[in-house]
Structures are given as structure tokens and as C-alpha cells.
Design a protein that fits this description.
single chain, 261 residues, alpha/beta, BirA Bifunctional Protein, domain 2, eight-stranded mixed β-sheet, three-stranded mixed β-sheet, 30% helix, 24% strand, BPL_LPL_catalytic, aa-tRNA-synth_II/BPL/LPL, BPL/LPL catalytic domain-containing protein, Lipoate-ligase_2_inactive
Length: 261
């Protein structure tokens, strides 16, 4: 299981009312749910539910590239390799990369994980990433509507070095990255904390802010609203091929401009 990612997503009503004590949150635990399925679930709950939700998806075994809603494949991916190896590419409904997050939400979520990692490594929130020391192990993204928001984090439990070859070095990167390549920038969570311990500590930390109500996966699968259409989707091969064309055209234009000057 080299591709395991632990994903925690939180869907909240805004603002939260605490006059009656701790607010209630539904706790949904999934095991190895496909990432696209989880994204569709998150977005549906964001758009059609009024409850608070905490979703923990423990692991995924199929390598998949997930880009933010505004991500450009030609800037982020080694598309030839992605197409050759038939790696799925998903565009999710939440922002990513270096979009501005409402800092109170990021600060609030980091308080939860400070409890989780108390006594384990040098945990901190660096810009929009969770890091141990100066190495990233958790990436965050958000979507905010008028009265609700979703905040989700992908935790890198383990990875296969060869999979880093599908990713380009991003043009925009957090300052603390300091132009490091992927392998010098990220770390494996499995080297820091036992898997089951991390999940249980996370649930305990969430429970210090909410009254937890465990729900079965079936309870979250209410009939889809006729007004809801998920926006997270797999990119088609034709879209990735078009991105290659754009990238090569830009490269040719840049070369021509350089020769002309």
C-alpha cells in the first residue's frame, strides 16, 4: 500500500452557534473510498446539507493526480508520462495551490492538529501547508459558500518515489519550499506516527470542539438533489493532449522571441 493518503474533510455551517454548548458534528469514516467519490460526496453535503460533517477517508491505493479548480495541467504535470501510464487526473471543486485562504479557518484547523501531533515531531502551519520541521506532509484546500464552508486536508502517509515523476516543479510555490525538489520538500507520515494512532488522535481532537455523532456511510447517501451536479471530474485524454499542445506552443513562442531579441 504505497499510495495511501489519509484525508480529513470538514464541512461547517457559518457561523456556528455555541449558545447550547458544543455544536454537533456527524463523523463519517470511510476506508479506501475513491477520491472522486469522496469529492462528490463532500460537494453534495456542502451544497445540500445543513449539518456539520467530519469525513475521514483512510487511504487510497490507486495513484491519482488531483488539481485545484484553477490548476493548469500543462504547468503542474508531466503530461506525457501521465498519459503513457494512464494516471487519472481529477480537477476538484476546491481551490488549491496558493489561493488565499481565510486565515481564521486555517488557524482553527491547525489548532486541532497541534493536539494530534503534540509530542510528535516539530509540527507547524507554514503558509497553507502542514509541516514537520520544514517538510510538507499535509495540503489544504477550501470552498466557501454564503453560509457554509468545506476545508479538506490530504495527509501523505506514504509515497512511491517514481510517482513524483508525474509532477512538475510548480511555478508558484510557498516561500519556505526554497526551490527544493519534491523529495526534499515532502515527508512520509508513517515515519512519525502509527496509522491507527493518528486517526484516533484526530477524532479525539475534533471531539474537543464538537459533540461527535458517528454515522454509517449509507446515512450520507441521501438522494441527490435535482439541483446538484458535482463539479469535480476526471479530465479527458483530449483535454490533456490539448494541454500538451498549449505547453509546446508557448515554448516555441518563447524560443522565437528569444531568437528575435
Amino acid at each position: 500500500e504505497n499510495y495511501l493518503i489519509i484525508i480529513l474533510s470538514s464541512l461547517m455551517a457559518v457561523p456556528q452557534t455555541r449558545s447550547m454548548g458544543l455544536p454537533l458534528i456527524n463523523l463519517l469514516r470511510l476506508k479506501g473510498a475513491p477520491i472522486l467519490q469522496q469529492l462528490h460526496l463532500e460537494e453534495r453535503l456542502l451544497r445540500t446539507s445543513y449539518d456539520n460533517w467530519c469525513i475521514i477517508n483512510d487511504g487510497t491505493t490507486k495513484p491519482t493526480v488531483v488539481m485545484g479548480v484553477s490548476g493548469k495541467a500543462e504547468e503542474l504535470l508531466e503530461i506525457d508520462s501521465v498519459l503513457r501510464d494512464e494516471i487519472p487526473v481529477i480537477r476538484r471543486f476546491t481551490g488549491g495551490d496558493l489561493q488565499s485562504y481565510p486565515q481564521p479557518i486555517m488557524s482553527w484547523s491547525s489548532l486541532i492538529y497541534k493536539k494530534v501531533f503534540q509530542g510528535i515531531g516539530d509540527f507547524s502551519l507554514r503558509e497553507n501547508d502542514y509541516v514537520l520541521g520544514n517538510r510538507k506532509f499535509g495540503g489544504n484546500a477550501q470552498s466557501i459558500t454564503k453560509n457554509r464552508w468545506v476545508h479538506h486536508t490530504s495527509f501523505l502517509w506514504d509515497y512511491e518515489v517514481s510517482n513524483m515523476g508525474y509532477l512538475k516543479l510548480p511555478k508558484r510555490a510557498p516561500d519556505y519550499r526554497q526551490a527544493r525538489d519534491h523529495l526534499d520538500f515532502i515527508c512520509r507520515m508513517k515515519d512519525q506516527i502509527p496509522r491507527s494512532n493518528f486517526i484516533e488522535r484526530t477524532i479525539d481532537a475534533v471531539g474537543s470542539h464538537f459533540v461527535l455523532r458517528s454515522v454509517d456511510p449509507e446515512a450520507s447517501q441521501s438522494p441527490l438533489s435535482s439541483k446538484f451536479e458535482p463539479s469535480s471530474r476526471l479530465l479527458k485524454r483530449e483535454e490533456l493532449e490539448e494541454a500538451i499542445f498549449k505547453s509546446r506552443s508557448r515554448g516555441a513562442s518563447a524560443a522565437s522571441a528569444s531568437q528575435a531579441s
